[in-house]
Amino acid sequence: MDALKKTVEHQTSNGKARDSTGNVRFPVTCLTVDVRPTKSSQNQFEAENIETPIPESSSNISPSSSNNSHSSLDTSSSQQGGRKRSLKEANDIDDNNLSTTPASTESSKASNGYVRGLLLDKDEGDREYVGTEVLIVRGGGGMGITADGRRDHTKDHSRKDSTAVAFLNNMKHNVPINVILGNKNKAAPSAIPHRYCVLDYFKVTDIWCEKVNGFVVIFYRLEKLFLDKKSWWAPVGSSETPTTRDFEAKALRQQCVTCTTSSPQVYDKGWMCLNSDCSTFWTSNGNSATVDLTYNPAFLHERSPSENLAPPYLLKPDSGNLCLNNVAAGITVSKGATRGVVCGNCDRCIPRKYWNAWKCATPDCGYVLHAPRDVLSASQVRTNLANTFDGPALSMDKCDESIQIDVEQHGLYRLHRYHLAPGNTVTHIFSCETLNSAIGGPNELFMALPQADLGLQRFEMSQSMSPGQLVAHFSSNSGLPYKYVVAVDSKAFADVPPELLNVLKRGSWAAKLAVPGKQQELAPFNEILTVGYLESDKMGYHDDGEATVGPTVVSLSLGGDSEMKFRMKAKFYYGMPKRGDGGKSPYNPNLPIIPGCAKPEDRRRLNALAATNCTPAELAKEAKKAFADCKATPPALLNLKLAHGDIVVQHGGQVQKHYEHCAVPSDKLRFALTARHIKPEGVASEDLWKGELPAGFDDAANAYDGDMALYEQYLARLH
Ligand SMILES: O=C(O)CCC(=O)C(=O)O
Ligand SMILES: [Fe+2]
Questions:
Q1: Among candidates 141, 130, 163, which has minimal Cα distance to 60?
Q2: Are 251 and 75 in contact (CB under 8 A)?
């Protein structure tokens, strides 16, 4: 049975899409939707932002036909990113090619050189055309703010740009594109019923160059792949699809006498050479083309026969049921399954907001599709089985030379304590196979968690440019309510599955090892945040330094591997919030020079200069010179390679104040269970009971002891 799963990840375009008011003008971008069918013909959308602004319509032809079926994409799609970061930061997982802010070039690479889908939404500029069977769209990139303050083309497009190469590949290899229309598109021939609606499959028929604002811009003509049915977006009352078509009727195509390139007659004013390399490009009788152009009706009316090639999957499902039970284990955690499905009742696209189900948000629809609960073992989701020895694990962590490390062994656990500042540490406690497979250990915990009713869901980002946008990872809170960017309800410890209390005990054990001799500083943990990462989910850079949270944060990692990276916040790394922003955030001589920061010698020199009576402009000039060769984003100074069963303890206010961390899982399913001490004074009195632990929980006899008996057994085997 075919069904459709789709999503669009809305991503900012690295600040480029902000208008003069500083608001992100979303969506000015065109998202390519990478559509990949699975074995079971479930159709899956994976979106990539190809940053293609679409110009406004200048003309419309009268539409044809009638069929009101449509599929829609919900705006509440998931966002790569994390808990409490700004969107800028959410998109800012910088090093090791982990950028989540692809420029158009990167997107095309990610689509393997083909355009899989095209989103046409809020548009700008001229000459966009959205007909019922033909589209004319402008390629992305090359936009900027003009001297008179308008957003327009400020750079030439090149046929070598990855977007252009991808469209050309689609045209030459006859690969269809799934087109989605947003309801902010002014060129749409009829009202678009949902925020995003799937139009149909289209093929690329022509690619040519024009001039917009004096710059070369590449245009694409797309034609509906199958012409037998009236397009659902045709205006009501428009004529039906003709039963016969004249496929021979073509617009004029003429070879240029200067460059011999053939161009179609796109505009009714007459033919022009549309090869941007030609000296006669975009001229008519020796004069540059005017701007008040209307399309050549013959070019718009051209049609080519439907292809013999059937599309790889149905864009609109013929049934709402996904046969997920019949497919390989892991489908519900694979990237495709992290996306939306089309509602079986009302065609709306439903994001996977809940761990266990897709639930349609259309009022009174009531459609729910349950995600089967695959019971996966940790070894099924781990691709890198490096830490699967019986004895203490090997370390693969990396850290900057400024960071001192204590290496210890506690039973079968290896412990690395990284000193970011005196009394401020990040401790990595490495597990191993013997510990993981112990009774009540990480293997059991990992298999039990997805079955437990933790209420995991993707919450809405409060700072999203697109209301309703969801964070990428699933989370649920237990114990005292933990307030960060998303409003997460909390389950009382009295009501949580025993596995979470087991995690809490392990966390307390780990914190005592990580922060030796400071037992009195360790306020008891009274909250656990469970974060579930499906394939490709990650958490962007953020800190855990909320005022209501104690100084010790401990996380247990279960399932897939992950990197956990720590970097200094830009302000502390460079001595200014952001390097190279034209002096808007000037160098601040009062910030501490922390070991591991960029150019400490220059910082000292700048600070000495600041202590003289130099002007702010002189200081800014010197700072600009000193940091001219620095990358804009600080590098990770500590990169922990977390494996199943590993525990990380962050301790000390400066870890959160001066540094930020991110989690980048590499496998299909991972949980991070993070315990904190929430200061009760910030919690509403009616919620305080939620943090109360069952009687006997704190008894020494019930505490986790680091599985010391297993260590003894291992030693006995060694000797
Ligand atoms: O996924 C992880 O290991 C880290 C999670 C985290 O940083 C957090 O929940 O604050
Ligand atoms: Fe965190």
A1: 130
A2: no
Ranges of residues in the chain whose predicted pLDDT is under 70? 1-111, 123-125, 307, 313-334, 336, 342, 344, 346-347, 372-374, 386, 462-466, 484-488, 520-521, 578-585, 631
83 Cβ closer than 6 Å to some ligand 1 atom: yes
Rounded CA separation 113/109 (Å): 5
Which pLDDT belongs to residue 486? 63
Query: What's the pLDDT at 149?
Result: 87
Q: What are the structural domains, with CATH classification, of the chain?
A: 1-247+303-374 (no CATH), 252-292 (no CATH), 406-568+636-710 (2.60.120.590), 575-626 (no CATH)
Ligand 1 atom closest to 665 (CA): 1
Distance 357 CA to ligand 2 centre (A): 26
Is the shortest distance between the CB of 640 and ligand 1 below 6 Å?
A: no
Provide the pLDDT for residue 30: 23
Q: Is the CB of 434 under 6 A from ligand 1?
A: no
222-246 in b/e form (b: 16+ CB < 10 A) is bbbbebeebbbbbbeebeebeeeee
The pLDDT score that the predictor gives to residue 33 is 26
Interface predicted TM-score of the whole assembly (ipTM), two decimals: 0.99
Which is the closest atom of ligand 1 to the Cα of 642?
A: 3
Q: Report whether residue 544 contacts ligand 1, using a CB cutoff of 6 Å.
A: yes
CA of 678 to the centre of ligand 2 (A): 14
